[in-house]
């Protein structure tokens, strides 16, 4: 069993989306409850939009945040995401993580 409060984040690397390579890092991360956790993705080309999803085991994808404009910053509860100025990268930060934030996170462009 895991110690109480330990969060496990399984991060999915997307290798081909819209015909271009999209890399996500870190591949996996863990944090204690209350800690901030950040992840990012980078692309080999410009995206018109970038969507962040979460998936719990045995469940479908749930859209968390959609970004459409260069430099756009969006929030959803404790989640914050920003589209890079060149629209070739993005980050997602979970502020004050909780057990409910455990899961698999994906960026799709």
From TrEMBL:
Q: What is this protein called?
A: Ig-like domain-containing protein
Matching entries from InterPro entries are given as: Ig-like_dom (IPR007110), Ig-like_dom_sf (IPR036179), Ig-like_fold (IPR013783), Ig_V-set (IPR013106), TCR_alpha_variable (IPR051896)
Entries under PROSITE patterns matching the protein: IG_LIKE (PS50835)
Ranges of residues in domain Ig-like: 20-109
Main location group: membrane
Q: Which UniProt keywords apply?
A: Adaptive immunity, Cell membrane, Disulfide bond, Glycoprotein, Immunity, Membrane, Signal, T cell receptor
Keyword Electron transport tagged: no
Task: Provide the protein's localization.
Answer: Cell membrane
UniProt subunit comment:
Alpha-beta TR is a heterodimer composed of an alpha and beta chain; disulfide-linked. The alpha-beta TR is associated with the transmembrane signaling CD3 coreceptor proteins to form the TR-CD3 (TcR or TCR). The assembly of alpha-beta TR heterodimers with CD3 occurs in the endoplasmic reticulum where a single alpha-beta TR heterodimer associates with one CD3D-CD3E heterodimer, one CD3G-CD3E heterodimer and one CD247 homodimer forming a stable octameric structure. CD3D-CD3E and CD3G-CD3E heterodimers preferentially associate with TR alpha and TR beta chains, respectively.
Alphabetized Pfam families for the sequence: V-set
